[in-house]
Amino acid sequence: VDQPGGGPPSPSGPADVLGFDPADPGFLDDPYARYHALRERGPIFRTPAGLFVLTGHELCGAMLRDPRFGHGPNPVNRVNPGQPVESFLRMDPPDHTRLRGLVSRAFTPRMVERLRPRVEAVTAGLIAALPEEGDLVSGFAYPLPVRVICEMLGVPPEDHERFQGWSETAARSLDPMLTEDLIAESGRSGREFRDYFRDLLELRRRRPGDDLLSALVRVEELTEGELLATCVLLLVAGHETTVNLIANGVLALVRHDLLRHAAERPRPVVEEVLRYDPPVQLTGRVALRDAELGGTPVPAGTAVVALIGAANRDPAAFPDPDRFDLDRFDPHRPDPGRFDPGRFDPGRFDPGRFDVAREPGRHLAFGLGIHFCLGATLARMEGEIALAALAAAAPRMELLDPAPPYRPNLVLRGLAKLPVRLNR
Ligand code: HEM
């Protein structure tokens, strides 16, 4: 999250900056209780450090679609050409539009559908190799999206031990209020990651394959910095989130004794998991000019945090929001006047034109507006295949640890481990 006004990190504590402290005991086990407490302060509030936090579903959606909010010029990128370039995740139009446009063709529903047999085969192979008792994150939830995104990009999957650490650091560095140590580590790790891709791209230039990297090296209008930043973004975004969709999903389903449903109707199950325990908990923007949100003036340069985890539990958008309810997105039980997933076609969905005020029941797990997740169709397909296959193979699975540990990240929420007994 950008600091207010783009200045140096504020010296005040997390509660001053964010309105809550993610290091508080119990926060990672249930951030949603804290979000509900924040909601008492209204759908938008200003923290002592001066940034705005949005907990309301409608306001989060409206801000994400509002062109008055963006990332702002990044002096490091543009003034020092030798410095690493940010990925398009942190860019505004027209650069964002140009770079996203170059890779978006690889993520259309038709292209993603072509990957289905491979995703199914990788899933089946991983499930067959699972021990009766073991950690489902390292044995299944993590390797599945890693292999899929590696194959798409043309990254050798056996390199995963080399990039796992860099990728974890990249995921961690999305958090607001990094320590000096983490900033230094993130810089180091980012350089190594880019060096790795520079070599790999050279290889693909000489020996092209039927993969995205080979296609990207042929695009002449990309600078090297843009090319490397795009590769890192796709690899990291392609698995550091989906691992959490799968693991958060298994945890919620087993806890509620609902796992068997995933085998029969994976689509509404995945949607409810995305709403109930979203892998991306928040995202930030800066007011690019003077603006207002829900009647509150937001001066140019002010940072704004959209708390997706809170928006997805907003009772104004989702009745009984803390209930894990597999019927919520079931097309066979449409709730009149609310978002109807039966009529919802992700392939034709235009997040830039979507109006949250008219369709209040849509979760914000993939964001909204021009930065709407490029990999949403792929992530949904992976989540549906993974949860359905696991539920079919081990419907009586049990948790070995009733309160499994979380990774310390705030933005990318996910389990460090999920020890289970399969009872196959
Ligand atoms: C952007 C969530 C999987 C690629 C985003 C954003 C969210 C998100 C919330 C918007 C961030 C913002 O507005 O600041 C998720 C979740 C996933 C997932 C919850 C899994 C369940 C994937 C996958 C890919 C991917 C599999 C594949 C490469 C991207 C990219 C962006 C993005 C490239 C940047 C889009 C842009 O800036 O225009 N994702 N994502 N994501 N996601 Fe995903």
TrEMBL record:
Residues annotated as signal peptide: none
Enzyme Commission (EC) number: 1.14.14.46
An annotated Gene Ontology molecular function: oxidoreductase activity
Annotated Gene3D superfamilies: Cytochrome P450
Region (Disordered): 1-22
Broad class of enzyme this protein falls into: oxidoreductase
Keyword Metal-binding: yes
UniProt keyword annotation of Glycosyltransferase present: no
Keywords, sorted A to Z: Heme, Iron, Metal-binding, Monooxygenase, Oxidoreductase
SUPFAM superfamilies with a match to the protein in the record: Cytochrome P450
Superkingdom to which the source organism belongs: Bacteria
Family: Belongs to the cytochrome P450 family.
Protein name: Biotin biosynthesis cytochrome P450
